[in-house]
Amino acid sequence: MKKLIFILVQISLIQAISSQGLPTAKPEEAGLSSERLDRIKPVMQSYVDQNKLPGLITMVARRGKIVHFEKYGMMDMGKSMESNTIFGIQSMTKPITSVAVMMLYEEGLFQLDDQVAKYIPEFKDLKVFSSRDKDGIHVVDQIKPMTILGLLTHTSGLTYGMYEINGNTPVDSMFNAAKCFSGTLHDMIQKLSEIPLQCQPGTKWNYSVSTDVLGYLVEVLSGKPLDEFFKERIFIPLRMIDTDFYVPGEKINRLAALYGPAENTGIKVIIKPDSARFSRPARFLGGGGRLYSTATDYMTFAQMLLNKGEFNGVRLLGSKTVELMTKNHIPTDLLPVADWYLPGLGFGLGFSVMTDPLVILGSEGEYGWAGAYNTYFSIDPKEELIWILMTQFYPTHYYPVSKEFKVLVYQAIVD
Predict the structure, then answer these.
(1) Please, what are the domains in the chain?
(2) Distance, CA of 300 to CA of 295 (rounded, Å)
């Protein structure tokens, strides 16, 4: 009976994938071992069984075919995780925004070394933080101006107000006090224009609000709100039917709750799905981290990238553009030294890029990113491999679940 139920579940998952045009295959047909791939399930299930995570989805594609798609646990207490569960993907929004920007680049609307102030005049006179003493904050002029390339690579000099990543700096404190995400994208630009840069542009990789600024740039260059551009140019062409800045009322029952660690042990709900909060169009269209999506939708987006800009006859980018986006642009001495940023990683135009797999299985040239609620994706052009992990748990990297999943995926490759 259990075997029959398992088969029926797998059939339903395959049907869900096939409805969006992604073919499926047995692992052996794509050069993986079924026996080895089966190691994924007990490890991921253990996070649910030990009450560390509420539920997960794991998905693997190789050579253009889905070879693994599993769901575990709950999307909310009393509601089982489903194949079409909707997740807040947070910073996995960034690669989508970067693709949108590069689509406009291909149309000749800007050059990568253009100054940002050419298109966003509010940034013309931005100063750079120098020091703080009893007399207050001291600033200096930019030595080299902020460029669009700097926004794409997080070397713009901007910051994020995230103390756990960049430290508790005076600029981060100013950023948080300004509540930059409380209005529209244009409101954010106005507030940023009054805050000094964290560092000189081009001198440091500093994870930042850069991609939200890119979202505003898309609006300026295209003449359309960011959500409209995404829908018309990316989501509708790729049939990403469940990806948006909000979750429509008829889909709210598919939205996963956000969990976090409880005070003593186990987990607790941080944010419950609430139609009043999530089912109305968003005011702040954050290109850096405000989208909702599903594993199957994001797999479609990832496969388009692996195909160098094309999926199912729809081409969003030229192959040379994708090559440019997915190569490392950051010298090693500019990269962060942090537990969450693995040795051997660089950064491209919207993605981390593996320059040398020093401490984990992988390939040179592999690229991807993660979201604050522990959503992850990675694309390996050499192995023609994509893996996606979705859950809803904060803080990020609280458990090594993504590292474990990645190892379990790569150890299954036999051809």
Answers:
(1) 2-85+246-280+294-410 (3.40.710.10), 110-222 (no CATH)
(2) 9
